[in-house]
Here is the input.
Amino acid sequence: MVHQMSMECYKFGPYKIEPKEVFYSTALSYAMVNLRPVVPVKRFVDLTVDETNDLWLTSQKVGGGLECYHKASSLTFTIQDGPQAGQTVPHVHIHILPRTDGDFEKNDEIYDAIDVKEKELKEKFDLDKERKDRSLEEMSKEADEYRSLFL
Here is the structure.
């Protein structure tokens, strides 16, 4: 059963996230589809013990569902905590990346790919404009597919 946080829209740093984009939530955490595939607290180190536990338990559950859905064999979880670590949205979040054999020549190249994508987004794009790249309908459809994993 999908737990629901009681709010009309979610906040992701300065951005509003429509409930249709969220496919899993608890009282303290939520999982949403990404605009561009690759508890408002700015830094991971600022989370309470309860928020930290909930975030990782939610990530574990969501990761397991996404790994199965994407027919992957592994998962990479990443947190960029602070601007020097590459955090571009001032909000704690975990990227969950389903992995398959051979998706990168060297396993750790995924981190270089994440860094490159983050820098491109930060340097070349106005994130508010980029939010328009995928329609709410497209993101809602993807969230509906993922939401069915947790019923």
Remarks:
- Confidence is low (pLDDT under 50) at residues 1-6, 127-132.
